[in-house]
Fold this protein.
Amino acid sequence: EFLDLVELDNEEYVVLLPILEEGEELGDLLKLNPEQLLIRWFNYHLKNASKPKIANLHHDVKDGKNYAYLLNQISKGKIPLDSIEDDEATRCAKDIENSKGLGAETYITPEDIMSANANLNLLYTASIFNACHGLDDLSKEEEEKLLKSDAHQNKLVDAIVKSVNSYDFNV
């Protein structure tokens, strides 16, 4: 079945501009599949928390610590990091509870996270992104600098919407 992992409409695509890396254009970002895009977004927040990057949404998140750092960052510190010292099961349960508090719809369990279930962690991460991406808006000046022209912008909008909304994902 087709599943919209990352829900962006034509006006919201610019939300991704802050996760561009040095020397990269939005077109480069649009070449990423939804999982790669979510990992890039996740790593953007881990970098802001001064934590190491993740390479995947299964083994690198299975202890729940990276989700705790992510949730702390996207909530602008409103979700505390007190779960870091908890055991894995308790920490993962708190991560799920905290993500639901941000509006994420999820049916994942702590056991799913701890077992490094790649598909369920992908869905969980997408749900968090769609509920609260935590990315700051760029100033008009920054946005214009990153976007070259109206024609280029329209191509980018079409490409990103097509890319993230047509990912074939079988649950």
Notes: The first helix runs from residue 26 to 30.
